[in-house]
Each structure stands twice: as structure tokens, then as C-alpha cells.
TrEMBL record:
InterPro entries: FUR, WH-like_DNA-bd_sf, WH_DNA-bd_sf. PANTHER family: HYDROGEN PEROXIDE SENSITIVE REPRESSOR, ZINC UPTAKE REGULATION PROTEIN. It comes from Chryseobacterium geocarposphaerae. This is Fur family ferric uptake transcriptional regulator. Gene3D superfamilies: Winged helix-like DNA-binding domain superfamily/Winged helix DNA-binding domain. It holds the Pfam family FUR.
Amino acid sequence: MAKRNTITKQLILDSLKDSKTAVSQEILQKELGESVDRATIYRVLNSFCEDGIVHKILGDDGKFYFTICMNCSEKQHKHNHFHFKCLTCGKIECLPNEVDVKLPAGYQSVTFNGFISGYCSNCSSLSANSF
């Protein structure tokens, strides 16, 4: 059964695609304003995760952030990479390098959530120039 594409889903998807960073539900709520309620955003984001459209990042603040998937499908998410949060500008992004974690014999990885905090290339170059 095909899933219906609604105006609300399209608004949320467009907002995610236009974003240069992973965004939380609260950020999406502020962007979309009164046009979409909080529960609908939550439901649509989770639906997008299940469909392989977006992936969910657990931040160091305990919040979930969402970003568009690259090369994923409903049956297989490929997110064995670190996520990076800039302590200056707050941007959260996926780092491009895939990580291969060697687990002990008998263990099988299902998900990976690596999170690094620091200074992005833009903010670290700005602070280097201020000294």
C-alpha cells in the first residue's frame, strides 16, 4: 500500500532538505509555525525514519535531531558515521567517513550513534583569526 503524500509531509520534507544542518522537532516547529502541530511533526519525522528518508541523531543534550538520509532505503539504513555538533554555532552534521567498529566475536551491531562535540571548520577558523 502506497503512503499518501500530504501538504504537511511535503512542508516538513522541504524544510529538512533546505536545512544545512540536522534539526530538532522544536526547530521544525519554529520554522513551520502554526501551520503544523507538534504531534504531527513528530509522527511525520518517525514515519520518514521508517521509510529511509531521514535518520535520527541522539544529541549530547538528549534531544533527537533529524537529517535527510543519503543512500538509504526502508529496509536498510546506513549510518555508521560520526555526528558532529559545533559548540559555537550549534550546527549538527553528519561526518562523511564511515566507521567500522570491530565488535567481539558473537556480537552483532544493529545501530551506531557516534557523537562528537567541538568546533566546526568555520568557527575554528574564526576563533583562530581572533587571536
